[in-house]
Amino acid sequence: MLKDFYRITIYVPILQNRPFLGASLEKMAETSPLIKQLIQMLDDNSVVGRVGQYAGVYEIGLGLEGYLPVSNAQPILGEVGVRTRLRTISFKTYVITGSTRNTIDQFVTDVVKIHPWEHPMIEISDVKLWIPD
Length: 133
Description:
single chain, alpha+beta, Alpha-Beta Plaits, 3 helices, globular
């Protein structure tokens, strides 16, 4: 049966001074303090990350992100006026539609508190997931 969910995707930088360059995705996830904190947040939450009979559901992917910091930006990596590219880990999880807006807002607020970026990239989109009856 198809059910409506929100997908929350959080982009996590692979910082240059970390031992991630050339590492496997599994090693990056195991050694990233932020990924560990995100997984713990799911373990502590009974709504975010819950899909059917499973809790703490997440997916991790590898990506390449680019941005151009404009005036008044304070980038962790790069500098104002210079295009920056870096490897990122995308961390995806789900929340069933109908959950209170406060639940999602609180989760995102908690993510922002631990994320190193000035403006964390967090996507929230509508998706349909197939869940067995």
